[in-house]
Structures are given as C-alpha cells and as structure tokens.
Amino acid sequence: MGLFKRNGAGNDAQGERKIAETELEANDASRGGVYLFFLAVFAVGFLVPFLLTIGLASPLTVAASIVVGFVAATSVRIAPHWERVAILRLGKFNRIAGPGLYCCIPFVEYAAIHVDQRITTASFSAEAALTADLVPVDVDAILFWMVWDAEKACLEVENYPKAVLRSAQTAMRDVIGQLNLADISTRRKQIDRDLEEMLGKKCEQWGVTVISVEIRDIMIPRELQDALSKEAQAERERNARIILAEVEKDISEMFVEAAEVYDRNPRAMKLRAMNLAYEGAKDSKGVLLAPSSLADGFNVGKLDLGE
C-alpha cells in the first residue's frame, strides 16, 4: 500500500497533477562557449574587410563587412563534446559533424539539428489508466534514455524527444491494463522491466536507447483508497482472530493434558494448590483470600509423601 498515493480533490490534487505532467528535465549544461566562438568569428570576419576598406568609410562597406562576418560565423562553428550535428547539403543529409570544430559551405550546407548524446532524464505520466479490473489510476514515472545514432534520430522521426515520451505513455497504459490493482504494488519492478523492454524495441529504430524506467507514484481515487484501507484493516483483524483462536486451542490442549496428569495422581493437584497459595500470598504481601477448599492442600495428614 505504500506505493499508492491519494488523488483527492482540492489544492493538493491539483498540484499533484501539475507535477505529474509529462516534461523533459532542464538541461543545465552551458553552451556559452559555442556562442562566444560564434561572436569571435563574426568579429574577425567583420573587422578584416572593414579595416582593409577603412579608407572608403561608406555604409556599403559596413554592410559588406557585416555580411562577411555573418558568413564566416555560420561557416566555421564548434560543437560541445556531448553533441552531434546533422548537416544537410541542399536539403539532403550529408554527414554528422562534431564534436569540436566543423565547417559548412555557405548557402549550401546548414545544421539541421543538434543531437545531445548524453543520458537524458524525463518524467512522464499516464492519467486515468485503467487496470485489468477497470480501476482508474494515475501513474508517474521517470525515463532514462540516450541517443546512440544521431543520423536515425534526425531522419527517422520528426521530434525524437516527444516521440520517446509519447511512446512511454502508451507503453505504460498497455502494461497497467494487463494487471489488477492489487498486483501493481507487488509487481513494481516487473512493470519497470516490461516498460523498458517495450520501449527499447520501439525506440531502437529511432537511434534511441532506453536505459531504464522507474515508477515514482501510483495515485488512485480517494474513495478507493478508503475502501482499500478498510479492507486491509479487516484482513489484519481476521488474521489476529485466527491467531488468537489457535493460541486458545493450544492452551486448551495443554489444560486437557494437565487434567489427565492430575487425574492419574491426586497428589499433583494438592502440590499445585499449595503452589498457587504461595504465589497468591507473595503477591498480596502475606494476605491470602481463597476458597476454603484450598486448605485441603495443606492437610499434611492426608498428603502421603511416601514416608
């Protein structure tokens, strides 16, 4: 039951739904160096023709210098170590460039897409997914994936990050729909493995590898949560009553065996009565209140000790 989470009305439920929305985690890596290199190349491309024609000092010279600087900056570029760049030539795929320095032919080649080949973390959810016993649940999970073939990621699918997340949502609904609500919490690891296998087969054709899928929360309606809580309490009470009955049975069997022993030898019963009297007197600080029949145990004349 620890895996389930309430999904009641109110601000808490609204906040949970906002958190559970499908989203890609923010990329904290800096691309400042790429932009600085672009500005540096632009500055060099602008200053060289401007200084050579500084004597003319006309607006046409400044405009020409800006064009030269822009062409130079877009022709000579760099890519971070974790990035690959798909280059198209006249609209057709030509090559994968990077990491490091790469060049493009002006007005002929251009960078179509920048592919990050690091492991990417994305959170996704499947809202109101129906289980096999027709119970709607909201599932929140985390997906770890990476691009191993930048060419396929560029050519085989329009938007590969969105395609991976949408496939993850569909696969989640398929897996949840094959299980009853009671099986979800006990088969959590199995659900993760099934999702990883299903997504791996689908995303491989896009040049994407699914590393792992981890379920964070499974949220069920508040009314059903209360019903499950009552069911669990009733089950525990039933188990407690069964255990108590078994203990009572064991004790009664012991009493039967003790009665048989006392019946075979009356002296054992008298010794037991003397022991009970001693224990009672000790607990009550020397004062003993007991039936008169208990005194028979102290009748030494009738107690044959075998002398």
Could you explain the architecture of this structure?
The structure is a single chain. It is built from nine helices and ten strands. Strand 4 and strand 5 form a beta hairpin. Helices cover 50% and strands 23% of the residues. It is rod-shaped. Helix 5 packs across helix 7. The strands form three sheets. A five-stranded mixed β-sheet has the order 1-10-9-8-2. Strands 5-4-7 form a three-stranded antiparallel β-sheet. The longest helix is centred in the C-terminal third of the chain and has 43 residues. The chain is α+β, with helices and mostly antiparallel strands and 307 residues long. The chain has three domains: 126 residues, Tetrahydropterin Synthase, Chain A (2-Layer Sandwich), CATH 3.30.479.30; 84 residues, no CATH class; 43 residues. InterPro entries: Band-7_stomatin-like, Band_7, Band_7/SPFH_dom_sf, Stomatin_HflK_fam. Pfam families: Band_7. Belongs to the band 7/mec-2 family.
